[in-house]
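chain below, 159 aa
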Amino acid sequence: MSCIYRVVEESGLSRLLWEQEHAGSNPAYPTKNNIMKLALIAHDGKKSDMVAFVMKRLKFFNRKDVSIVTTGTTGKKMLQAGIDKVESVASGPLGGDAEIGAMVTRGEIDGVFFFRDPLDKHPHEPDVQMLMRLCDVHEVPLATNYKSGHIMVKYFSKK
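prediction:
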């Protein structure tokens, strides 16, 4: 495939080929059945920010073409905030961040909203860094705070 890529790149069509090759992991192309799967994660110190963020955007998060996956406690908070359906994995310190990282690797996640608390220590910090690295490697959009989350919702709302 790399030979074909070089030939196409020389003819100025590299973006088109990239989009065709990455159709399953590019946020412009929802992963399954035209459903956008978004991960919502929040450290304890940021859970209230995540709840406020989601409550302001319930119409978006409850769209039929949006599927939500969360880590443990965040999932409970998201249900309380008004999201209709939530798939939960383990709590972050118990491997939930790694589970979502695996979903990112498999091309199952279109975007990650990870409101992390940079001023607190976390025993699962290697998992947090791994998830962020995997988002970069697989070009999955990652919002780590309220304002970047707002920008991501605006982007995904156009899909």
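The chain has one domain: 24-157. The longest strand covers residues 36-42.
thats it, cya
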